[in-house]
Design goal:
Pfam families: UAA
Keywords: Endoplasmic reticulum, Membrane, Transmembrane, Transmembrane helix, Transport
Helix content: over 70%
Protein name: Solute carrier family 35 member B1
Largest sheet: none
Strand content: under 5%
Shape: globular
Main location: endoplasmic reticulum
GO molecular function: UDP-galactose transmembrane transporter activity; UDP-glucose transmembrane transporter activity
Number of domains: 1
Number of strands: 0
Length: 216
């Protein structure tokens, strides 16, 4: 969303910004784990954080380029998926040849040939999943696709918490509520007059936030 606004000059309804902010804040609260005091030296911004920042930036630029192709060239989902995977194969193929990982992979498959069937199954399910992802990008836009994939990861973790009875902290409960608010706000905003959408979602967020804090 940020790169779309800054690079493509896209504009979204104020309620859309609020819904995205609620989802991002909720996921961040749910995944945040405060570091326990260990007496170690203070952590500084390092190589791992730099790679993560680069990954997020490139992911955002991918969404911007997809939005540009969708708006100016009416690119089909299968056409976009085919070309993205062809170029990915070209670049990654050169990468594994340069690093020598290709020969390590072939050696691994010789030692464990049963892994080949798992790789084929993974490739099939990945292709099916990508089909839905690119259909979402083409028909609904990269921002909607990003929201879906982010909340999908959140609900996967939440399902594991429920199924395996893992303990959940008060902060994670607040994060859960914020994600549900962001999701429900995006769905119900169409039924509310435009000038009242932000006030409605903001008020609903405050109500649920204080209710969950009071219950904790």
């Amino acid at each position: 969303m940020l790169l779309g606004v800054t690079l493509l000059r896209k504009r979204y309804p104020p309620a859309k910004y609020l819904c995205v902010l609620l989802i991002v804040a909720g996921v961040a609260l749910f995944l945040y784990k405060p570091k326990k005091g260990t007496g170690d030296t203070e952590h500084i911004f390092g190589y791992g954080e730099l790679l993560l920042l680069l990954s997020l930036t490139l992911d955002g630029l991918t969404g911007v380029s997809q939005d540009h192709m969708r708006a100016h060239y009416q690119t089909g989902s299968n056409h976009m998926m085919l070309n993205v995977n062809l170029w990915s194969t070209l670049f990654l193929g050169a990468g594994i040849l340069f690093t020598g990982e290709l020969w390590e992979f072939l050696s691994f498959t010789e030692r464990y040939p049963s892994i080949i069937s798992n790789i084929l199954l993974f490739g099939l399910t990945s292709a099916l999943g990508q089909s839905f992802i690119f259909m979402t990008v083409v028909y609904f836009g990269p921002l909607t696709c990003s929201i879906i994939t982010t909340t999908r990861k959140f609900f996967t973790i939440l399902a594991s918490v429920v199924l395996f009875a893992n303990p959940i902290s008060p902060m994670q409960w607040v994060g859960t509520v914020l994600v549900f608010l962001g999701e429900s706000g995006g769905k119900i905003q169409g039924g509310i007059r435009r000038k009242n959408r932000v006030e409605f979602i903001f008020g609903l967020s405050l109500v649920w936030f204080f209710l969950i804090l009071n219950g904790l």
